[in-house]
Amino acid sequence: MAAPSMRERQACWGARDEYWKCLDENTEDAARCKKLRSSFESSCPQQWVSRALRGFCSLSGARGVSGRLGSQRRPRHVHPRFL
């Protein structure tokens, strides 16, 4: 896998931030964020997506985002809500 360009990384991070913002605003109904999740998954390398979802789940205690609790390791990119 070739490293993403700066433009691709920025698109990925923007899609991730929009998806996480939606999850923050819709804590009871993550299904409302389905389109944003699809955008996030199509904008980012799969490894980045799975790592970001594990990080979000472990920090928020959410179960429904990726289907399971994430690892207890702190992700490199912490969701702004937790800074």
From TrEMBL:
Subcellular location: Mitochondrion
Pfam families: COX6B (PF02297)
Signal as UniProt keyword: no
Alphabetical UniProt keywords: Disulfide bond, Mitochondrion
InterPro entries the UniProt entry points to: COA6, COX6B-like, CX6/COA6-like_sf
Signal found in the keyword field: no
Parts forming coiled coils: none
Identification of the protein by name: Cytochrome c oxidase assembly factor 6 homolog
Species the sequence originates in: Galeopterus variegatus
Gene name in the database record: LOC103598759
